[in-house]
Design goal:
The protein is 28% helix and 23% strand. With 337 residues, it is α/β, with parallel strands linked by helices. It starts with a strand and ends in a 22-residue tail after the last strand.
Length: 337
């Protein structure tokens, strides 16, 4: 693994057992996360983004399992570690900012208790006074007055609660912070401030951040690279500038065309036809082919390889691969509405 790669995921599959059968929420996905970057992971709801993020920390239990895959974090394959060893890595090296902080923070613990408990759980030799001093310094750095550290989660605003979640991820100087839809519950003004803070922290502490979101605009604003998921598969990966400027996969093109843009001449907003497929019974071949305006016969039969289509830009699409002699069929009608 290259020195500039902090986390390398190889052929990861996450499976949920249901009454109807096994559902692969992440299906044979490979992705590299580079040191010091902000990588945006985007896609429609239900495509497997959050499941992928949790898998990086091996947080799945109960009906969920990881039957195959390698999780190489900073030179170690986490899949080979006993699951009992993972709590030592979570928090200390891998931080997580969940979508709704109210369901992640303990309602009967003060912010101070959250932080000092996290610090002393991983660093038992740190005294109460030292842990408190570190906690106060951290929350002030994140824009929360130190006197509010004694308050409880319900006494804070949504934006402040998310800042507390970040402080928990930073308390032990985690190497990678996974932020799962961190701005969903925030209004646009608080969201903008939160994103500015995230970028400042990334530059100040040299953080590596995986930002999981459905908001294309957020990714365009702060991310260095973008990964696009569709129906539990990786569709396209590349630098944010290249992918937004010249998307290769038809699904990525549809996503970007669906974003409102005051500079567009079109009177009607583009609407991608069809619906995401059932992961219980996914379509054969390329999973996007039932909705793709460029679908060919081979798209319905064989799954395209995820490979380079232009330098470091990767995509899984038969438009950029050769398999005998095949020609695009007539374009399907693109639904607009």
């Amino acid at each position: 693994m290259s020195d500039n790669i902090l986390y390398s995921v190889r052929n990861l599959t996450v499976e949920y057992k249901t009454r109807g059968g096994a559902v692969r929420a992440v299906d044979d996905v490979s992705l590299d996360i580079r040191r010091g970057e902000i990588l945006g992971l985007v896609g429609e709801s239900g495509c497997g983004k959050s499941t992928f993020g949790k898998a990086l920390l091996r947080l799945h239990d109960g009906p969920a399992s990881i039957p195959t895959g390698e999780l190489w974090f900073d030179g170690r394959d986490l899949m080979k570690l006993p699951i009992q060893e993972m709590p030592k890595i979570r928090g200390a090296e891998l931080g997580m900012v969940f979508q709704d902080p109210m369901t992640s923070l303990n309602p009967v613990q003060s912010i101070l208790d959250h932080l000092t408990e996290t610090i002393q759980a991983h660093e038992p030799k740190v005294s109460n006074a030292a842990a408190r001093a570190r906690a106060e310094e951290l929350v002030e750095r994140l824009g929360i007055r130190h006197e509010r550290i004694k308050e409880y989660p319900h006494q804070l605003s949504g934006g402040m609660r998310q800042r507390v979640m970040i402080s928990l991820a930073l308390a032990l100087r985690a190497k990678l912070v996974i932020a799962d839809e961190p701005t969903t519950s925030l209004d646009v003004i608080v969201e903008a401030k939160f994103l500015d803070l995230l970028k400042e922290l990334q530059q100040e502490f040299g953080l590596t951040i995986l930002l999981i979101t459905h908001n294309i605009g957020v990714v365009a604003e702060i991310c260095d690279r973008v990964a696009v998921m569709y129906a539990a598969k990786m569709a396209e990966v590349g630098s944010a500038e290249v992918v937004f400027g010249n998307p290769k996969h038809p699904y990525t093109q549809g996503l970007l065309n669906s974003v409102p843009n005051i500079n567009l001449d079109a009177k009607e907003l583009y609407k991608m036809g069809g619906e995401p497929p059932s992961l219980l019974h996914p379509p054969s071949g390329c999973r996007f082919h039932p909705r793709c305006p460029f679908a060919m016969d081979i798209c319905t039969q064989e799954e395209p390889a995820f490979q380079s289509v232009a330098g470091e830009q990767l995509a899984a699409c038969w438009l950029y691969q050769k398999k005998g002699d095949h020609q695009p069929s007539m374009k399907k009608e693109v639904s607009r509405g």
